Amino acid sequence: MVAEPLLIVEGLRVAYGGIQAVRGITFHINPGEMVALIGANGAGKTSTLKALSRMLDPVGGSIRYQGQEIVKLPPHRLVREGIALVPEGRGVFPRLTIAENLAMGAFTRDDKADIAADLEHVYGLFPRLKEREKQLAGTLSGGEQQMLAIGRALMSRPKLLLLDEPSMGLAPIMVQKIFEVIRMVAAEGMTILLIEQNARLALESSQRGYVMESGEITLTDEASSLLHNPKVREAYLGE
């Protein structure tokens, strides 16, 4: 028996004033799957994630999560329902310590023993955070802040993790470390929607992919097939 998709998006439209950023896209994500959404800057990828996380109000379409329509739910309800966003630019609390930022990730929870266990799990994924847990987040490097942003999202114990450009602005060695952890989290069964400018890295890490152009999804396939698609190779892989 095939499991129902965890997330089903149908006809999603997002606009800024009179400008349509997302033009009626439809896609789905199955439980335990990592799916990449790739495309050029301005294609509508971040607008899509903002709509999914309710940071933006769509102007049309349906977003169903675990069979429930969520298009009108407030963002804090989505966190309780199991959706966590790691935003572009990290968005850590700069005047709070690493430990305090991670505690903020668990603000919807009251299961203290499980929170403590999840904190140790995050520190296991990112030992550097453990070493510096009393350091202010604003003093961390970009890569360390990205670790913290991912760790904070994991502290909410999400069922669906939304990642927006996790490699942006990072040194290659840090990108490698971040993606090692993303793959580890995916291997543990986390469902992930990944937006990533590095199309090769995104597709190599994912099971399926969608290509977005000018607010529309123009291609969808297994990630391995997209890696060998001539159009994708020319447009996004620099070949």
From TrEMBL:
InterPro entries: AAA+_ATPase, ABC_branched_ATPase_LivF/BraG, ABC_transporter-like_ATP-bd, ABC_transporter-like_CS, BCAA_Transport_ATP-bd_LivF, P-loop_NTPase. Pfam families: ABC_tran. Transmembrane segments: none annotated. Keywords: Amino-acid transport, ATP-binding, Cell membrane, Membrane, Nucleotide-binding, Transport. It comes from the Bacteria. GO terms for biological process: L-amino acid transport. Residues 7-239 form the ABC transporter domain. CDD domains: ABC_TM1139_LivF_branched. Belongs to the ABC transporter superfamily. This is ABC transporter ATP-binding protein.
